Structures are given as structure tokens and as C-alpha cells.
Amino acid sequence: MNIDPRDALPPEQLDALSRAFSDQLLACLDECARGRRGLFSEYVSEDEEETSWPEATRLRELAVALQNVFSQNDQRNALCDEFLDLCTMHGESHPGERKLARAFLERIERGDVGTPTEEQQKPW
At the top level of its lineage, which domain of life is listed (predicted)? Predict the structure, then answer.
């Protein structure tokens, strides 16, 4: 799908959106790494108070919107893409949210975001 170049966002607006997303993501990852649940998916418990994390919900919504904006501008945002990938991981074989948050924070600090998250399987 080609868009009219006049409809594309200027690079400085894309940069500002990326920074806003990054700042919010880091804040939520830090909170999640300390034990709060519900960053990567909606957390459900018996206690209504414990389930509500509006910042995490907004962050997931922002990530989807940002990914769409970047794709319309023929660009990618590795941080956004990786966060959304982590949001799709569910099941017993996947680490808990605290571990995911810690590992993601470490990858961000090392500058590894945008590279494969899992070791390539050796053919032997």
C-alpha cells in the first residue's frame, strides 16, 4: 500500500512518538520487573483493584497505533515490534511477566532490541 508522501509524518514527529513510547515502556517495564502483573496481557484476578493497570493498557494500545504509523511511513520501530511480540507470548513454557520484563530491560540496556530474541538453533 503506497501512501501519498504528503500524508507521511515528518521524521521529527516519528522521533517524538518513539521517545514517548520508549519512556512509557521503560516505566512500565520497571514496575512489571518489580512484580506488578498485566503489562504484556490483561491480568485477571478476583480483586478488581489489583487488575487495573491503565498505563499498561494504554501502552499496548499505543504500541499498536505506533506500529501502524511507522508501517504507513515504510519504517519499523524495533522496540515497539518486540514489545508487541512479547505481548503475544502465553503458555506454560514462557517465562512469567517479571522475568520477561527484566530480560527485555536488559536487552534494551545492551542495545540488543531489534535482533533475534532466541538463540538460533544449531543444525547439529
Answer: Bacteria
In tens, the pLDDT along 37-95 reads 899 987 666 665 556 799 999 999 999 999 999 998 888 999 999 999 999 886 666 67
List, in order, residues 6 or more apart from 101 with CB less than 8 Å away. 29, 30, 32, 33, 39
Which residue shows C-alpha cell 503489562? 39
Query: What are the C-alpha distances in Å from 78 to residues 81, 111, 117?
Result: 5, 11, 12
Would you tell me the crossing angle of helices 11-33 and 54-72 to the nearest 10 degrees? 150
Q: How many domains does the chain have?
A: 1
> In this predicted structure, what is the pLDDT of residue 106?
96
21 touches 77 (CB < 8 A): yes
63: domain range? 12-42+51-110
Asked whether residue 115 is domain-assigned, the answer is no
Q: Are 15 and 75 in contact (CB under 8 A)?
A: no
Report d(CA 88, CA 43) in Å as an integer.
Answer: 14
